[in-house]
Here is the input.
Amino acid sequence: MVETERAHWGSRIGFILAAAGSAVGLGNIWKFPYITGENGGGAFVLVYLACIAFVGLPIMIAEISLGRATQKSPASAMRSLSPGGGWIGIGWLCILTSVCLLSYYATVAGWALHYCYLAFSGQISGQGPEQLQAAFGSLTATPSLGVAWQLAFMALTVLVVVAGVSHGVERWSRILMPTLAVMLLILLGKAFTLSGFGQGMDFLFGFRADKLTPGGVLEALGHAFFTLSLGMGTMITYGSYLRREDDLVSASVMTSAVDTLVALVASMMLFPIIFTFGLEAGQGPGLLFVTVPIALAQMTGGGLLSIVFFVLLAFAALTSAISMLEVVTAYLMDDWGLSRRRSTVCAGIGIAALGIPATVSTGWFGQIDYYVSNWMLPLGGLGVALFVAWRMDAALRRGAFESGSMLAKFYKGWLWVLKYPVPVAVGLVFLHAVGVL
Ligand code: PFF
Here is the structure.
């Protein structure tokens, strides 16, 4: 009965594109390169890949299974399978995390919109490195400018989510994701011709264990959650719009693979630029917004390329932001009985207001990102893993994994990983973070 009332994806590829649209975002193109730069490259990349394969992917399958089995958003999903239990707290944590994450994600997405404007008005091509470095500095130092772009981005996000699952989220993901892939490949082709290409590759893939710190391991794990959109109910919510016959395991593998590929390609494009132009690899959040314009400004056709690049960056951010807003919208619809329009607008306004401090204060931005990425997401993901592995009804869990799946034979292996290695790995990282280990 529930299934006939609930909205569903229009097609299998639509779900994959929407899930990949959620996963591929600023985390891949902006954040992964800059944290890799801060953590010294090579060894960090390897730890990150291990976190994706052995922790992220199994949890993604768990989240989507939970969503599909219950056809509900995070809190109601927990409540329906474990009435009266404390597990609903995990569902609420997911929703709180969505609110917090989207609040400051919109800050960076607003920067991307500002750079679209700079690119369109010809203020990137032909500029020197100092001017472009100063342009980013003045954006972060002018609160009203940042806030205006952040609010504009939130308004766009609300517009897409109001249109609903298949007409809004799915339709836009179908158009934007393939375009993004083509653009990244063109930029990679450019990077390949730069003199710093070899040095960039060595930084990314050369293994230097001495650079790896325990804090770096925590960051790699946190980022695996961030980049795969785990630990805040997005994949539960998207899974709830899946039909029984869809192969969720293959879809999860595809989504994780696409996401990882985009992060690696984005870095393979950025680090050669950094080494060619003598820029600082560990400069932090401004990395993308300074390095890419510097490179594009010097290339033939750079004016056009910078337009395409920043438009696509903004779109990648949009397909991720809609998935975050969808979590809160689905919660307000499922649990409060509000209409889609009202839920989306209320959530959008509240989150936009909460995001203003992150836009005007870099200190607050850094703090909230630290807690969300390194604490709240892993905790939410761990909660879902424990719930699905230890609390969810075994037949329901098996049905959710196996129905429509070409990879049904991996059920036992997946369950084992989810039961033991995943909680132990996430637990150890936490214990280290609180100073016990
Ligand atoms: N995965 C997105 C990115 O890499 O930019 C960010 C994100 C989206 C995180 C949705 C969490 C989420 F639920």
In short: The chain has one domain: 12-433. The radius of gyration is 21 Å. Residues 302-336 form the longest helix (35 residues). Residues 12-433 form a domain with the Hydantoin permease fold (CATH 1.10.4160.10).
